[in-house]
Every structure is written in structure tokens, then in C-alpha cells.
């Protein structure tokens, strides 16, 4: 059974570590247009091929409880399908077509063909003009790249289509289009040439040190198996040699009905879904017998154990892996038991590893993962980022693992991790009625790919209760031994410089007996009674309903305001967001700051009597969280909780504000993490942009400019406290609570927590109320990266505006950006293959009256930079000179409105849109008018906004080039040199 558990990875420096719920808040609802009239999808007589879950092909041989929500079928030609009714979000139907073919099915000469074919398929079919399907789906409200997409993995190719506001006509037409594309894609030499350029751009844009490390690591871990050299992107050689006849032969061999699974989940009758599958796939005929399934191979115990990857400017890292053969199993209750116990065993080790890192170990971070990889290997991997001495870090991690396979864990340790799993499964059960159809469809496709089944959330909860009862110390010891032993051991060291002794040094380190490191957590007794009193419960000064919203504004005598929406459509879930202070506005544009330190270290530094480990114990098995973010006009502490935990959830947040703790270890760890990854900041064009672009667009504003190495090195716990202590203690507090509050007295809870705090001191003036834009340039500003010579990036932007005074223009610029992006996509990618993913974005900050911009950018080959600027100028000039057509406007405004309509059925959307609404009534008014503003945009509005903002005299441009290259050099480069060797 497919086990999907949420993880909580350590959020260190981003350079190192890398609205599922729905509610109806509007009164009246805005979703009328997206509701499917029952008659619109009225079903015919039940197709003979349709079967309930109990008789399904998916569950053959399995004793796992069936999910009765699914109906299954199999056509005479062998095509299998699964359909289900689901009304989340209202009016949407999600379609998935899974083909049982991926990069592992390619010959050496066909490397990359499965992925290239995926691209060709989405261009169109023999029955519609090239690119027309994209425009048809846009008219249906589909957003390209999110609502319509595809993915090629080593073991499968999946086509995805999410149709909003579906009607009988749009569903029928979409099924026809998608079936035609899968069955008969347009595979001409012209199409192959065009799409090869796009794939080559994707290959080029992904190239760099991280990709080289990943490819070399994969080749080592899976030596002797197809997986070792079958990355879906292919190679330059195989893609260059690809011709239409060869790609067509690949399609004819593998694209067959008996290798296809069609999944449809959505707001309609599953009988109609099944009828459409029969209508458009029933006459699909196979070309000859089903080809022989490739032998993916088994781990080779005789392959080399150690591998060193020397990659300049990359941090030290280690991968220690135990590799076992993948075994095809019938997915049964016993199989599920094994999977859950393996997950528990990994969680036990990860808790110990993290505890050692928190207390100042030899590594910055270390974690273990066990995975069944692409039907090729059962692998357990420890990934380690040493602080300096890789041998010490490896020894310490091996010691923790050695203890796990020698000494049974305590029952208390097992229960702690089992509590976390059980709490997650209970949350999934409570949220089952709000599960989006798209996720249900994706889960079923994933289960088919890994030869497992799906079951209901209730069955998950019931099975795990029985499974955890069997998780005794001795059982867990045996499971640990099983996942940390195997026929093949692999060790990879990535290092910026060669190491003395080479791979022999790795083998010697691995040959040393592991010294047991018992890093088990000492018993911690933490409970909320240990928190100092917050004060006497506060009194409510006022309480009013906000017009047009199912939300109540509450103000307490201490100045705390709250916006509460008690709605029953997310059963058992409560979302909390506490906004305090003034966020980015608390710092002047040119003042030094430590805003960049808050994301990890502020939460990890503790609360009152509790350090990080105590807080983990305090919240174990409960839905209590603490997430931190910096917004433009506030700092935010947020959580996803449940009614029974709401009182303690708010007590924890109030405690963070009233009694902050200042443990030094998280600050030191953050500083080391930033320094460890600092040299990654210019490794690729993308890395340069991720780090610097926002600051460049703001004219060097230090609130968004990244910290220098000197600033990172200077970070101390004392400086951290000096910056954050006054910000936690001052400025207004606004609370948002949205969700299932029928069983709790939220006013009393608020009064006894945040309402009980003493009045906050006012904010000191900081001078951070304005945001400037980068100065106009006539020639692009140049920046440089240290990556591949064939990689570059180009950006151009115009300043717009900000604030709450012109919401219609704010939405109009979103539509303008979409039109610009659509045209740029057609010219730069679809026609010329110069870029994999050009982007146009409109940023309009509502917390500032300035600082907005319209940004156009793309990763490119250096030789295409001038072409990019020419195309961007031409598109901008045309938008200024000529009104757009009604069809182009509708094709771009419609998908935006659909995205808003779907998002607006959820609490997450409304909490975001209503931030600050307790203090500024314009915020709620703007939120309520957003869809009308989008649909009210006219061609005249687009042209007016283009004339107002797309002024060449205010334009700013940037080019990112390889070090040592000039724009003249870039323009002179020919195509062969624009793609670096060694791509995936």
C-alpha cells in the first residue's frame, strides 16, 4: 500500500537544504460558474467494463481493505481505468493517463526518447494543428504548466490535465484531444527539431555541479543496473541523433492500450467518466505483441564500494548506502506492516542523528532515507554534510546506525515516533472529505507505478493501530537490521578538492569498526503547566462581523485584534496565523539587518523553559506547530492545528512572544550552514538569481539583498537576540483563526492567551515605508556565474506600483503578465526552442505604495540573450501600440480567474488575502472584488497599463554570463558550443 507521510525536514540555510483544505467562506459563494449541473454530466447505462473496488484489477491478490470510492474497469484491448466522484474543488475534473514506459525502457540509442515523446505529445496530434490544444484548453480555463502538464520518470510517463468549471462539452472535447495526443502524436521531423531544441534547453539549464554530482552518485549507487545511466533527459548525442521515424518507432513499441491506465477523478458522475474512456480509447489497437519488459538489473556486490567526486566550490558531503534488490510483492496487510515498521525504524535513527547535530556534533546535518527506487533497488541511504572532518562525521553516523542494529530501542522511543505517524494519519482521516481530486488521482497513479494499492484514510488509521501494537523493541531491532544490511555497500564523498589517499581513504574509513554512538534522547518531561503565566484573561473591547465574509473581527482591551472564521467545511482542522510587528517595514532600506536569520533560528532557539527537544516532546503526537515567516508589514507565527489542540497551540505562540528563549546552538548552526553553502551562490545562473534578483530589483535595498560572507561570519547569538528581542516585544498583534471551531470557545482561548498579554509597546519609526526600483539602464547590467559556459540568463523589468488604491490595475497587470508570458512562450520556446521555461511575473506589494514591477526573464544559452531582449522589446511595443484580441484576453484572463475561483474555496487563500484586514477595511473589499476585477479587464485596460508602465525610459535589464564572457562574446557563440557536454 502506498504510504505517503508528511516529513518535517530541518529548514537550514536554503543554499544547503533544500490549498489542500477547502472551505466556502464567501456569502454568497462565488463558485456558481464552476458548479457542474447534474444534468450536464448525466451518465448513460453503466458500462459493462466498470467494476467496484472489490472486483478490481488493482487489488488482485491483496487483502488490504478496498477504497469503495473507486470504480475500476478494463477494456477488451487491455486498457485499464479507475474513476471516482469528488467535488473538491467544485467543478474540477482531473484526468491522468499513465503509460507504462519511462527512461528505463530505452535502448542506448534511444536515451531521452521517452521524455522527448512526452514533449511531442503535448504539442498536439495528427488531428489538430500544432499548439492548438494549448489554446483550446486555455479557453476552458486551463493554465499551462500547472493544470496541464506531463512527467517522465525512469519507470513511467504520466499526462496530467485538471479541467476547471467543467461542462459536458469541455470534458468530452478534452478527452478527445488528450486521447488523440497520446494515441497519435504529431511526430514529424519539423516537430522533433522544434521540441529537441526545448529539451536541449532543459538539459542545458539543469546542467551544473549539482547535476553532475547527482548523475555521478546515481551511476555509483546503482552500478550494473539500467538506473545508473538512464536519466529521463537523455544525452546530447542521442537527442541530436533523434529523428521522427526513430521516435515514432519508440511510440509504436511502447504506447499501447495494454500498457495504459486512465484515471479520472472529479465533480461528475463516474459512469460518464467511464463512458468517455470507452468512447475515446476503446478502438485503440496494439501494434503487435506486447514487447518484452526490460530487465532493470540487480545491485552488483562486486562493483566498487567507494567513489570520490571532486567538484570545486561545493561543500563536503557524504552518501552512505546499503543497496538490496527490488522484490516484486503483492501488496497485502503484511506488506503494509513491513513498510510502516521500516518507516518507524528510519524515524528512530533520524531523531538520534538530529539530536546529535543540535548538540554540536561533527556534522551540520545528517539523515537516513529508505526507498524502493524505480522498481530497481531497495536502498537505505545516509546523507551527511560534515562540518569539516568527513571522517569524524562518517564515524559518528555509522556509530548511530551501529547502535540501532545492536541494541533495541526503548518502547518510549518507539511510541514517540508512532505517535507522530498516528497523528498524521488521523489528520488525513479528518481531512478526507476535503481531499482534492487531483491528489487522489496522483496517489492512484503512484500506486500503480510502484505495484501497490490504495485504501481509505479510515483503513489506514485502523491498520496502523494494529501495526504499532506489534512494534516491540525486539521487532524494531530486527527491522533495523534488515534495512541497514544488504549485499552491496556504496560510499560517495563529494569534495571541493582531492583528498589525501583518494578512494583508499574512504575504504579505510569504512573498514574501521563502528564505534557505537548511543544518541538516544534522554527522557524529557515537558508540559504546558511549566510555562510562566501569561496574565489575567483579557477582555473583549469589540466584536463585529465583516460585511460579505463569514468572519468576525474581535478586538481585545490590550490592542490585540483577531479575525475568526468558524466554518465546518474543514472538519477537525484549524489554521492559525499570528501577525505581529511590522516585518520588512521595521528596517530601513539602507540599514543592516538580520531578517535572514529568523526562518530557522528564531523558532529553534526555544520558548521559556523549553529548548527545541523539549518542544518536540511537548507537541509529540499532537497537531501543534510553529512556523515563522517575514512578510512586508508583519512577522508571522503560523500553524495548522485542530480544535482539541487550539488552546495549547495559541499558548505556545503567545509564549514565544512573551517568554522567548535565546539558545545559542541554533544560531551557531545557522551561521555554519550559510557559510558551508556560500560558494554555491554563483555556481549557476539560477543560483545567482535566487540569491540576488529581489535585491537588485529593489535597487540594492538591504531588506532583500543577501548577506555577505562577512555579515554571516559576524553573526553571534548576542547580535541575534539584540535584533529579534525588540521585534518580538513590540508592535501590534493580529490573529487569524480559520476552521472548525464549533466545539471550542475561541473567544475564551484568545482571551486567556494572546488577549492576556500586556499591551505592546509601539513601534519605533524605522524609515522602511518605501521601496525603490532599480535604476534605468540602456545596456544590461552584467553579473557572472562560475558554472557551464553554455548557461546564461536574461532579465528585463519595468517598475509598476503598489498599495491598496488601485486593485483593478493590480489584477489587470496579472492578466497583462499572462499575455506577455504566452507570447514569449510561443516565440522563445515553442517556435525557437531557445528556452525551456521563460517567465513573466507581475509583483504588486500591497503593504507598500511602491516597489511593484513586471519582470520578464529566462534561462538561455549565451548566444540567445540578444534574441531574448529583441523579442521582449517587440512584445512590449506591440502591447503598447495595439489592443489585444478578445480571444487572447479571454485565454489569459480565464485561467487566472479559474485559479482564483479554486483557491478561494479554501481557508489558506482567504487567510492570505485578509492579512491586515482587522486594521484596514480596504483589504477585505479588495479581496471580495478580485474575481470581478479580473473578468472586468478589457483590451483597452491592457493597452492602457502597457502604455503606463512598459516605458523604455524606465526599463532595467540584467544578463548573467559565465565568468570572463562579454555580451559580444555571447552573441558570437554558435549553437554547438551553447550546450555543455555531460548533460543528463
From TrEMBL:
Range of residues in the leader sequence: 1-33
Cofactor(s) the record lists: Zn(2+)
Keyword terms of this UniProt record: Hydrolase, Metal-binding, Metalloprotease, Protease, Signal, Zinc
GO annotation, biological process: proteolysis
Upper lineage: Bacteria, Pseudomonadati, Pseudomonadota, Alphaproteobacteria, Sphingomonadales
Family membership: Belongs to the peptidase M16 family.
Sequence ranges assigned to domain Peptidase M16 C-terminal in this UniProt record: 244-419, 715-891
Species of provenance: Sphingopyxis flava
Transmembrane region(s): none
Official protein name in the record: Zinc protease
Domain Peptidase M16 N-terminal: 92-224
Amino acid at each position: 500500500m502506498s504510504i505517503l507521510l508528511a516529513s518535517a525536514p530541518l529548514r537550514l540555510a536554503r543554499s544547503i537544504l533544500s490549498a489542500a483544505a477547502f472551505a466556502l467562506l464567501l456569502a454568497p459563494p462565488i463558485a456558481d460558474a464552476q458548479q457542474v449541473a447534474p444534468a450536464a454530466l448525466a451518465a448513460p447505462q453503466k458500462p459493462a467494463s466498470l467494476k467496484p473496488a472489490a472486483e478490481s484489477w488493482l487489488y488482485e491478490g491483496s487483502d488490504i481493505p478496498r477504497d469503495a470510492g473507486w470504480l475500476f474497469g478494463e477494456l477488451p484491448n487491455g486498457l485499464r481505468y479507475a474513476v471516482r466522484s469528488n467535488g473538491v474543488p467544485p467543478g474540477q475534473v482531473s484526468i491522468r493517463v499513465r503509460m507504462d514506459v519511462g527512461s528505463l525502457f530505452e535502448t542506448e540509442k534511444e536515451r531521452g526518447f521517452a521524455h522527448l515523446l512526452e514533449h511531442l505529445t503535448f504539442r498536439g496530434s495528427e488531428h489538430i494543428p500544432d499548439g492548438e490544444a494549448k489554446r483550446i484548453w486555455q479557453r476552458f480555463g486551463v493554465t499551462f504548466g500547472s493544470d496541464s502538464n506531463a512527467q517522465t520518470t525512469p519507470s513511467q510517463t504520466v499526462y496530467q490535465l485538471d479541467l476547471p468549471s467543467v461542462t459536458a462539452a469541455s470534458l468530452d472535447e478534452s478527452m478527445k484531444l488528450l486521447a488523440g495526443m497520446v494515441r497519435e502524436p504529431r511526430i514529424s521531423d519539423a516537430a522533433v527539431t522544434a521540441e529537441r531544441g526545448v529539451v536541449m534547453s532543459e538539459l542545458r539549464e539543469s546542467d551544473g555541479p549539482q547535476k553532475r554530482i547527482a548523475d555521478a552518485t546515481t551511476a555509483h549507487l546503482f552500478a550494473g543496473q539500467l538506473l545508473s545511466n538512464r536519466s529521463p533527459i537523455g544525452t546530447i548525442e542521442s537527442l541530436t541523433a533523434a529523428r521522427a521515424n526513430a521516435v515514432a518507432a519508440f511510440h509504436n513499441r511502447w504506447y499501447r492500450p495494454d500498457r495504459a491506465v486512465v484515471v479520472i477523478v472529479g465533480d461528475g458522475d463516474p459512469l460518464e467518466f467511464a463512458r468517455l474512456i470507452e468512447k475515446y480509447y476503446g478502438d485503440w489497437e496494439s501494434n503487435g505483441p506486447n514487447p518484452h519488459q526490460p530487465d532493470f538489473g540487480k545491485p552488483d556486490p562486486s562493483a566498487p564500494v567507494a567513489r570520490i567526486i571532486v567538484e570545486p566550490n561545493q561543500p563536503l558531503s557524504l552518501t552512505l548506502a546499503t543497496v538490496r534488490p527490488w522484490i516484486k510483492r503483492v501488496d497485502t496487510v503484511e506488506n503494509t506492516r513491513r513498510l510502516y515498521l521500516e518507516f518507524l525504524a528510519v524515524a528512530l535513527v533520524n531523531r538520534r542523528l538530529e539530536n546529535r547535530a543540535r548538540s554540536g556534533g561533527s556534522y551540520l546535518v545528517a539523515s537516513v532515507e529508505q526507498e524502493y527506487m524505480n522498481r530497481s533497488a531497495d536502498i537505505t541511504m545516509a546523507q551527511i554534510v560534515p562540518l569539516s572532518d568527513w571522517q569524524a562525521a562518517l564515524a559518528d553516523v555509522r556509530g548511530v546506525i551501529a547502535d540501532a542494529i545492536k541494541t533495541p530501542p526503548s518502547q518510549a522511543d518507539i511510541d514517540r515516533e508512532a505517535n507522530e505517524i498516528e497523528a498524521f494519519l488521523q489528520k488525513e482521516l479528518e481531512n478526507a472529505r476535503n481531499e482534492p481530486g487531483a491528489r487522489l488521482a496522483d496517489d492512484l497513479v503512484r500506486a500503480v507505478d510502484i505495484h501497490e494499492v490504495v485504501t481509505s484514510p479510515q483503513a489506514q488509521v485502523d491498520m496502523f493501530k494494529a501495526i504499532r501494537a506489534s512494534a516491540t523493541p525486539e521487532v524494531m531491532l530486527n527491522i533495523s537490521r534488515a534495512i541497514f544490511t544488504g549485499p552491496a555497500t556504496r560510499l560517495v564523498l563529494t569534495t571541493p578538492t582531492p583528498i589525501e589517499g583518494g578512494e583508499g581513504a574512504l575504504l579505510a574509513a569504512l573498514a574501521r569498526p563502528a564505534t557505537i554512538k548511543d544518541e538516544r534522547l534522554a527522557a524529557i518531561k515537558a508540559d504546558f503547566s511549566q510555562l510562566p503565566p501569561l496574565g489575567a484573561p483579557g477582555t473583549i473591547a469589540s466584536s463585529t462581523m465583516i460585511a460579505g465574509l463569514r468572519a468576525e473581527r474581535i478586538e481585545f482591551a490590550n490592542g490585540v485584534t483577531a479575525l475568526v472564521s468558524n466554518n465546518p467545511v474543514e472538519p477537525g482542522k484549524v489554521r492559525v496565523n499570528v501577525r505581529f510587528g511590522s516585518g520588512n517595514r521595521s528596517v530601513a532600506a539602507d540599514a543592516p539587518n538580520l531578517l535572514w536569520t529568523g526562518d530557522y533560528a528564531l523558532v529553534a532557539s526555544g520558548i521559556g523553559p523549553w529548548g527545541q527537544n523539549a518542544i518536540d516532546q511537548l507537541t509529540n503526537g499532537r497537531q501543534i506547530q510553529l512556523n515563522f515567516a517575514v512578510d512586508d508589514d508583519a512577522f508571522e507565527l503560523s500553524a495548522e492545528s485542530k480544535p482539541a489542540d487550539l488552546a495549547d497551540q495559541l499558548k505556545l505562540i503567545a509564549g514565544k512572544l512573551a517568554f522567548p528563549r535565546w539558545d545559542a546552538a541554533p544560531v551557531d548552526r545557522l551561521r555554519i550552514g550559510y557559510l558551508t553553502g556560500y560558494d554555491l551562490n554563483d555556481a549557476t545562473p539560477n543560483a545567482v538569481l535566487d540569491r540576488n534578483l529581489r535585491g537588485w530589483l529593489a535597487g540594492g535595498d538591504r531588506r532583500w539583498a543577501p548577506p555577505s560572507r562577512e555579515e554571516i561570519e559576524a553573526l553571534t547569538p548576542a547580535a541575534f537576540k539584540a535584533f529579534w528581542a525588540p521585534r518580538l516585544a513590540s508592535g501590534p498583534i493580529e490573529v487569524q483563526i480559520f476552521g472548525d471551531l464549533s466545539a471550542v470557545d475561541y473567544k475564551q482561548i484568545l482571551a486567556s492567551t494572546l488577549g492576556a498579554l500586556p499591551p505592546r509597546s509601539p513601534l519605533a519609526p524605522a524609515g522602511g515605508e518605501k521601496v525603490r526600483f532599480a535604476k534605468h539602464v540602456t545596456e544590461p547590467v552584467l553579473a557572472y556565474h562560475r558554472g557551464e559556459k553554455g548557461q546564461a540568463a536574461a532579465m528585463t523589468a519595468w517598475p509598476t506600483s503598489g498599495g491598496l488604491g488601485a486593485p483593478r490595475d493590480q489584477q489587470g497587470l496579472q492578466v497583462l503578465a499572462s499575455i506577455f508570458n504566452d507570447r514569449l512562450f510561443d516565440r522563445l520556446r515553442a517556435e525557437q526552442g531557445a528556452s525551456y521555461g521563460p517567465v513573466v511575473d507581475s509583483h504588486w506589494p500591497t503593504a507598500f505604495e511602491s516597489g511593484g514591477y513586471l519582470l520578464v526573464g529566462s534561462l538561455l544559452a549565451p548566444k540567445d540573450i540578444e534574441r531574448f531582449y529583441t523579442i521582449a522589446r517587440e512584445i512590449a511595443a506591440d502591447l503598447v501600440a495595439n489592443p489585444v484580441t478578445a480571444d487572447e484576453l479571454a485565454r489569459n484572463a480565464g485561467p487566472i480567474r479559474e485559479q482564483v475561483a479554486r483557491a478561494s474555496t479554501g481557508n489558506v487563500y482567504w487567510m492570505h488575502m485578509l492579512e491586515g484586514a482587522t486594521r484596514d477595511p480596504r483589504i477585505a473589499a479588495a479581496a471580495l472584488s478580485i474575481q470581478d476585477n479580473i473578468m472586468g479587464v478589457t483590451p483597452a485596460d491592457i493597452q492602457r497599463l502597457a502604455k503606463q508602465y512598459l516605458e523604455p525610459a524606465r526599463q532595467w535589464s540584467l544578463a548573467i554570463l559565465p565568468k570572463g564572457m562579454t555580451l559580444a562574446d555571447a552573441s558570437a557563440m554558435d549553437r554547438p558550443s551553447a550546450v555543455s557536454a555531460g548533460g543528463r
